[in-house]
Amino acid sequence: GGDHTITYPILQAVAEKHGPVGLVHVDAHTDTGDIALGEKIYHGTPFRRCVEEGLLDCGRVVQIGVRGSSYDPDPYKYCRDQGFRVVPAEECWKKSLVPLMGEVRRQMGDKPVYLSFDIDGLDPAYAPGTGTPEIAGLTPAQALEIIRGCKGLNIVGCDLVEVAPMYDVSGNTALLGANLLFEMLCVLPGVKTM
After folding, report:
1. What is the CATH number of the domain that holds 75?
2. Is the whole-model pTM more than 0.85?
3. Which pLDDT score is estimated for 69?
4. E strands, the chain, where?
5. In a domain, 193, yes or no
6. Whole domain around residue 62: which residue ranges?
């Protein structure tokens, strides 16, 4: 997809059919800002708009890999105040995320879940082709653990956003993004894999 703004109208449509959904959100940023340059809708605000419209089941929202610069001394306060589980990148360093995803599966239960993956959740050493890179991110192996860890969930939609070809000189970001999207297709309900 494009930037993370696209997830907002997608979740409006998903919630119209399924009601408020759980969310597995992989990103360097929470994307719960309120206003930027006088605008309420931009790639840093989609999940705040979703909360305001009741599109998310906030007790079933987990944000994984968040880190980076902030304009706020407590950048995760809004998310935690809504009931989101925030897993900062430093809690993911140097370890498998299989145990975390076991916890996430229990948290999500059998109700509808949406998976939203911002490529900047990964470290720019692996995915430099994005508009807001942040150091010290997730590895591709951890990305696979997260996505594969969603198998068995009632996934009603997913996206991968923020790949910016003009910054992707090597093409590695596009390759990684395409492979992660393939992995997402493989964990959708009813998909049979070998």
Report:
1. 3.40.800.10
2. yes
3. 77
4. 21-26, 56-66, 85-88, 112-118, 154-161
5. no
6. 4-111+119-187
Q: Which two tokens stand for residue 162?
A: 């923020």
Residue 192 lies in a domain: no
Q: Residue 1 pLDDT > 70, yes or no? A: no
108 Cβ neighbours under 8 A, 6+ residues apart? 22, 24, 60, 153, 154
**Overall number of domains in the chain:** 1
List of residues 6+ apart from 25 with CB closer than 8 A? 31, 47, 61, 62, 63, 64, 116, 118
The dihedral through the CA atoms of 85, 11, 178, 4 has a sign that is negative
In a domain, 72, yes or no: yes
Distance between first and last Cα of the chain:
27
Question: pLDDT digits over 14-53, tens only?
Answer: 999 999 999 999 999 999 999 988 999 999 999 999 999 9
Instruction: Kindly report the length of the chain.
Output: 194
In three-state secondary structure terms, 159 is strand
Contact 148, 53 (CB under 8 A): no
* CA separation for the pair 53, 45 (Å, rounded): 13
